[in-house]
Amino acid sequence: MASNNRKKNIFWNDDHHSFSKFAVVATAIFLVIVTFSRGGLLNWGRAKYESARQKRQIENYESEIKAMDKEIDLLTTNKDSLEKFAREEFHFASPGDDVYIEKN
Predict the structure, then answer these.
(1) How far apart are CA 34 and CA 103, in angstroms?
(2) Is the pTM of this model over 0.70?
(3) Which residue in 22, 31, 26, 28 sits closest to 11, CA to CA?
(4) Is the dihedral of CA 34, 38, 39, 41 positive or negative?
(5) Average pLDDT over every residue of 53-72
(6) Which one-letter DSSP state was computed for residue 96?
(7) What is the pLDDT of residues 13-62, one digit of tens each?
(8) Distance between CA atoms of 21 and 25, rounded to whole angstroms?
(9) In the chain, which residue ranges form alpha helices assigned H by DSSP?
(10) 53 vs 41: CA distance, rounded Å
């Protein structure tokens, strides 16, 4: 244990290792700045994740829009589909239909 501390003291107190000391300190400072600064790696990773999430959300919305456009086209061109939609969504009945009311 004492020899290990002695080696550390020799490294840090020796004049011949001045460049090594500078390189270690400069690298540590560089890594802290790159990782934790405003434009650092952590913020870059968060931004990349958020961008990917928003792209998936855009793709989902685009597919929903396409499905809705198909449904609108079907409802505006086909009277039978419009009638079916009205019956299912708004519980409409045509003349002559039997209507049952359920009491809870």
Answers:
(1) 67
(2) no
(3) 22
(4) positive
(5) 96
(6) T
(7) 666 667 777 888 889 888 888 777 777 777 888 899 999 999 999 999 99
(8) 6
(9) 2-13, 18-36, 41-77, 79-90
(10) 18
